[in-house]
Amino acid sequence: MIAVLVSGAVALVLALFGTPIAIRILSAKGYGQLIRDDGPTSHHTKRGTPTMGGAVIILATLAGYIVAHLVPVRLPTASGMLVLFLMLGLGTVGFVDDYIKISKQRSLGLRSGAKFLGQGFVAIVFAIGALQFENSRGLTPASEAVSFVRDTPLVLGPILFVLWAFIMITAMSNGVNLADGLDGLATGASAMVASAYMLVASWQLGQSCEFTPFSQCYEVRDSRDLAVIAAALVGACFGFLWWNASPAKIFMGDTGSLALGGAFAGLAITTRTELLLLVIGGLFAIITASVVIQVGFFKVTQRRVFRMAPLQHHFELKGWGEVTIVIRFWIIAGLCVALGLGVFYADWVAR
Question: Mind listing the pLDDT tens digit for each residue in 282-304?
């Protein structure tokens, strides 16, 4: 567990003290946020706030992971490297998206097709890799079975698994991206989700079939390494949140939101808790559902369910203060995390 603590602490310190450096660099280069003209008018005051701050979260997470493997010296695992690849790959797609917004001076960056193609390529490479790298016990980083809190009897086979992973990864990365609309909202919620996966992976390590084979044990390939990554994400998010909370001095941009969403999907797949991610990341699922409902209902009826989607902007237009919305949505995120962890533990007790 020392590696988990070291990883989180290093990422926290680097994000906390590295973010102001990033703010100065991004401000000097003029990499400021562009605001949609059809969005809430209160957001116009945020125009020019440095964006692409998600790069700090990514770098702090990578640094935390690396240092944790030096104290003591331990080789990276296949599961850990794949999750980091997914985070870095989707972060790169987000970085390109953010850069186009800034360089072209428009609120939309990559075209939807190009962005989807980039996400899809990274997701498919991850999914194919996750079925490779068998260890001495015959375990690969991912399983072809659909999982909830453990693998279920429903086995997809390699082709359907790749499709399933693709859907999960694109959905989760876009879900965090949609939540990143108010100061600190996505960052705070992401810290909670990462904390949940740190606890899940740590518990799986303590009850691993590799060390203590019994009826309740978990068949997860590299639970220690996954806990280290989750801890680094927690530290990086909390360090960044110090500067991203209202009034935000920097935004994570698509660079951070796509990377975080990809990391969570990767952790869910490699810890065999795929469907549980819908509960733990419930806030992101709710926000994504609000957009799907809004678009679908409008296409059918030419009317809107919400004043504006994603959901947080609906409440802004109803007159709720930004800080009030963020805090209340954080409460919802915390309740979803608590429910998810409760379901995870209840399965262990029931067995």
Answer: 999 999 999 999 999 989 898 99
Q: How far apart are CA 252 and CA 98, in angstroms?
A: 10
**Can you give the pLDDT at residue 40?**
57
At 187, list the tokens. 């960052």
Instruction: Give the rounded percent of residues in the chain with a pLDDT score beyond 90.
Output: 75
Are the C-beta atoms of 233 and 195 separated by less than 8 Å?
no
| DSSP string for residues in 189-235 | HHHHHHHHHHHHHHHHHHTBTTTS-STT-B--TTHHHHHHHHHHHHH
SS3 content of the chain, % helix, strand, coil (to 5): 70, 5, 30
Q: How far apart are CA 147 and CA 156, in angstroms?
A: 11
Instruction: Calculate what percentage of the chain has a pLDDT beyond 70.
Output: 94
Q: Identify whether the C-beta of residue 238 lies closer than 8 Å to the C-beta of residue 260.
A: no
In tens, the pLDDT along 192-230 reads: 999 999 999 999 998 988 777 777 888 899 999 999 999
Check if the beta carbon of residue 238 is closer than 8 Å to that of residue 60.
Answer: no
Domain count, the chain: 1
Half-sphere exposure of 197 (CA within 13 A, CB side): 38
Cβ atoms of 128 and 162 closer than 8 Å: yes
| pLDDT, tens only, 51-105 | 899 999 999 999 999 999 997 788 999 999 999 999 999 999 999 998 888 877 6
pTM of the model: 0.93
Spatial contact of 257 and 186, defined as CB atoms under 8 Å apart: yes
By three-state DSSP, how is residue 10 classified? helix
Cβ proximity of 235 and 64 under 8 Å:
yes
Q: Which residues pair with 155 in a beta bridge?
A: 145
Report the chain's mean pLDDT, rounded to a whole number: 91
- Beta partners for 295? none
CB-based burial label for 163 (10 Å; 0-12, 13-18, 19+): middle
Residue 148: domain span: 2-350
The tokens for 192 are: 């909670």
DSSP letters spanning 314-328: HHHHTT--HHHHHHH
Of 107, 62, 101, 98, nearest to 80 by C-alpha is: 62
